[in-house]
Amino acid sequence: MEVETLLHGVRDYRFAKDVFISFNQEVLQCSGINVQEWLRNVSDSFCSNEFAFTLMVCWRLWGNQNDVVHNNNHSSAEGITKSASEILVAFVEMNR
Questions:
Q1: Nearest CA to 42 among 88, 11, 77, 14?
Q2: pLDDT grade for 1, boundaries at 50, 70 and 90
Q3: pTM
Q4: 4 in the Ramachandran plot: left (φ > 0), alpha (ψ -120 to 50) or beta?
Q5: Domain assignment present for 82
Q6: Residues 28-46 pLDDT 10s
Q7: Are the beta carbons of 53 and 92 closer than 8 angstroms?
Q8: Domain count, the chain
Q9: Which helix (H) or strand (E) holds 38?
Q10: What is the domain extent for residue 54?
Q11: What's the burial of 19, exposed, middle or buried (CB within 10 Å: 0-12/13-18/19+)?
């Protein structure tokens, strides 16, 4: 049985890959043996807006997985990216 790591939860499982492919599959090309190294490589590879969006997508993937496990609610890749975008826009607006 494979141990689920944080990196697996936000990058390596099939649904996460589908989400990243839907908006920027280059994120998947960033290497890392753990989530900190992977995020450092993503940060070094993309502009701040792309990195912020990637972080928000990771947060939504984590929340989605919790929703699947605890409530049996499944989101689409489009739903994850749309909610990540909406939350990021609201966050930016609130912090101007």
A1: 11
A2: very low
A3: 0.86
A4: beta
A5: yes
A6: 888 887 888 989 999 999 9
A7: no
A8: 1
A9: helix 35-45
A10: 6-94
A11: buried
